[in-house]
């Protein structure tokens, strides 16, 4: 009877000590743990009287909805990755969380590829060694004046087109110097002397040789010079192209990676973005047809499927389109979401 009276007096945070004073039985655990039926007073109750699984007295009690963050991690804004506290956080190190490097079977993508469109049906569809996706999904190499971009192991790289050089070593103006000038004849800083200095084919000369035309202080072949194509100072510039001058006319020598000359017109250059065009996806003439209850889409040069509202491609097979309605008890709101027995699917939710 004495123990019962004491037990009633021991309600609240001091339960442990009151029971001990009354002589209530306690468990003498060698590890210092409390008896199973006693709740530690410095840990907030979850509502069902449960104690955290590890019983760690050092766990802080936080308000509902507040995250407990590991001390070694930095907290960043909503929708962003949590980056280890000692990791670099320069803009080049930021990786968008919505571009997983997982394959269609749930495994990691092979090195140099990524699942940029997040579609299981085509797996790791994107190569990460192109100027539009260099090292990461959507990381494009910027265009620089008179330079051709490429993507290598160290990221974006640039090579000056023939007849130009990057003499000031600045990225913002590309290959800014023409090497047919008397001040930079054939190479940066090589100056031609004389009263009327001339530079021809990278060499200082006294007069222009036969077959070339003097354009300013340079001797050029206007039939082949990209900077003087057909006439002095008529520089070839064709969109998304490596230009050439043939018989005094500007032509497309080749297209930058990810673009195509699908209309076969030199004047428009490589006008088609092969990574986005639904009519020319990955290559000219490759049309994304779509399927039942959906339309075709082109993402990173691969055809995909965009389902109409209320439908989904649950089997991952683009050939049969978006075959599943998302208002059924077997696929309620999303693929494989089965409603419990007795409930039905209403507006994408089991009720």
Would you summarize the structure shown here?
The chain contains 2 helices and 22 strands. It has 351 residues and is mainly beta.
How would you explain this protein's 3D organization?
- The chain is mainly beta.
- Among the domains are: 59 residues, no CATH class; 64 residues, no CATH class; 43 residues, no CATH class.
- 4% of the residues lie in helices and 21% in strands.
- The protein is built from two helices and 22 strands.
- The strands form ten sheets. The protein has a four-stranded mixed beta sheet with strand order 10-9-12-11, with no helix packed on it.
- A hairpin with a 2-residue loop joins strand 11 and strand 12.
- The radius of gyration is 35 Å and the shape is elongated.
- It starts with a helix and ends with a strand.
Could you list the spans in which at least 5 consecutive residues all have pLDDT below 50?
A: 1-106
Number of strands: 22
State Rg.
35 Å
Largest sheet properties: 4 strands, mixed
What percent of residues are in strands? 15-25%
Mean pLDDT: 74
The assigned structural class equals mainly beta
Number of helices: 2
Biggest β-sheet: strands ordered side by side in the sheet: 10-9-12-11
Helix fraction, binned, reads under 10%
Q: Spell the H/E element sequence.
A: HHEEEEEEEEEEEEEEEEEEEEEE
Distance between the termini: 52 Å
